[in-house]
Amino acid sequence: MKILGIIPARGGSKGILNKNRKLLGGIPLLQYTTTAAKGAKMLDELVFTSEDDTLIGLAREQGISVPFKRPAHLATDTAGSLEVVQHAISFYENQGVFFDAICLLQVTTPFRNAKMIDAAIERFKKSNCDSLISVQKVPHQFNPHWVFEEVNGTLKIATGESEIIKRRQELPDAYIRDGAIYITKTETLMRYNSFFGNKTTFIETDALTYVNIDTMEDWEKAETILKLLKK
Fold first, then answer.
1. Are 104 and 181 in contact (CB under 8 A)?
2. Does residue 149 surpass a pLDDT of 90?
3. Residues 6+ apart with CB under 8 A from 71
4. Contact criterion met (CB below 8 Å) for 190 and 89
5. What is the pairing mode between strands 45-49 and 3-8?
6. Cα–Cα 20 to 30 A to 164, which of 12, 110, 173, 199?
7. What's the rounded Cα separation, in Å, for the pair 88 and 190?
């Protein structure tokens, strides 16, 4: 199975100015992801996609291939990751290069490492699933079996059950996607316009080193995690 690693990053950012090239611990945020991706042994090829010349220059300095510049319409606030990935796949297919799946690595989750990427790819290859996502386990107090929705002024259990599960020990594990790793079959992306398909497996990441940077509060959390990692 041939897998293309894709690192997307655009120049604009509302929450944090120039976020993707802002220095975190003296290193551009982008570099955490490029370093991890370059160290992964199970990516057959790695590409960076951006419309921003400065970010493109940074990626090339870090040894990442940038064979095209992302079109402006795919670098707006409303442009989705699906379209960005499909654009990268189409570029390669127009060159006669085909991949069985892609591994999307977003810059805003900087503390995944090469070992985690390889473990995710290995699990995906063995799974016979359409996709894999990295996840975090939901704390029991937020488990969907203990979450309520309002219906006409009354509360109903969000899972649709008539009676609540009383004991924490009886709750099934629940997870949220954390955005660190997405792996999807090319056919699922291109034919069905989906990152998930019919069957999705997962890999659980380390909650202690997890952050998805969107706000300055997230950035401050990342700085705290980095200090812990250095210790």
1. yes
2. yes
3. 51, 87
4. yes
5. parallel
6. 199
7. 11
Does the pTM surpass 0.90? The reply is yes
Distance from CA of residue 157 to its chain's centroid? 30
Residue 142: count other Cβ atoms within 10 Å of its Cβ. Answer: 10
The residue type of 71 is P
Task: Please state, in angstroms and rounded to a whole number, the distance separating the CA atoms of residues 40 and 113.
Answer: 8
pLDDT band at 15 (very low <50, low <70, confident <90, very high): confident
DSSP state of 65: B
Which residues in 164-222 belong to E strands, given as ranges?
175-185, 200-204
Residues 85-113: pLDDT tens digits?
999 999 999 999 999 999 999 999 999 99
User: What's the pLDDT score for residue 12?
Assistant: 76
Please enumerate in sequence order all residues whose Cβ is within 8 A of that of 133, keeping only pairs 6 or more positions apart, or say none: 177, 181, 182, 183, 195, 196, 200, 202, 203
Evaluate whether 212 touches 179 at the Cβ level (below 8 Å): yes
Half-sphere exposure of 64 (CA within 13 A, CB side): 31
